[in-house]
Amino acid sequence: MSLRRSPDERDGVILILSSAGFFSLMSLAVRLGRDTFRAESLVFYRSLIQVCFLLPWLSDYFQPLPGVSPKKRIQIHFLRGTFGIAAMVCLYHALQLLPLGLAVLLSMSSVLWATFFAWLFLGEKARSQQVFFASVICGGIFLSVFSPTEAGTGWVFNPWGVVSALAAGLFTGLSLTTVKSLRRNLGSREIVFFLGLFGVVWTLPAFGLNPQIPVSLRDCVLIVGVGFFATVGQLLLTTGLKYTSNLTATLCSLQQTLLNLVLGFIILGEFPPSTFYWGAVLVVGGMVGLMRAGRMA
User: Fold this and answer.
1) 73 vs 107: CA distance, rounded Å
2) DSSP conformational letter for 152
3) Tens digit of each residue's pLDDT (9 = 90 or more) over 69-90
4) What is the DSSP letter of 65?
5) How many other C-beta atoms can be found within 10 angstroms of the C-beta atom of residue 77?
6) Whether the model pTM is above 0.90
């Protein structure tokens, strides 16, 4: 008699909470490398490490899936990879221009975009409660972005960073919408492998025109850290999503904002103004309400 039990929602919660920790460390590594590497170079190295890490399991990626044609499978990977890499490049730009906590909070607008795209492309009806909570999120984002800054606090406002962070949320929303119907059919390693593969393909031209090669031990540690933390975080997140609801997954992922605020405070000396916290409360509360309203639809 086997003592092993089937994975359940509790396991999914543990996996997603763990992934938030790894993504927070990845964000910190991206920020620390901003004076040495462009965002596209960091995405290239991350993707390359991701592909190399998962290459030994390559034969597992081509097992047939019931009800999913090979053409449809490739189309899903192409769209998910394209949107995912666009989101990654935008997020890395934002992490290099904004405080850690603000960049991550704004990128969480992906929940808002995912709800909108599900209505636009998947025919999911928008309820009045969803419209209300979407407005709350927008208000929270406005309050967080336009928080006053003070000299010496490390809390800076960069309009291009804000645009990049919001664009990262938009592309992430598109990516989530693309894979929503197939997330239980595709293996976690397959999804993460092809995300890395498309990352290498899409960023190789920019990297080739102006390559940035690590020349010091610190550069190498940062590059490996970005790739390792991102790969493990992505695997944990993709696996955890199979066992949790959208609401539970969103609540667990929001931990990343808090972790980045702590890391930004301790390591980078970033001190958020009080108005930022009020904006963050509105964003998080709006996301929770939006997901609950969507579950009841």
Assistant:
1) 27
2) T
3) 777 778 888 888 899 899 999 9
4) B
5) 23
6) no
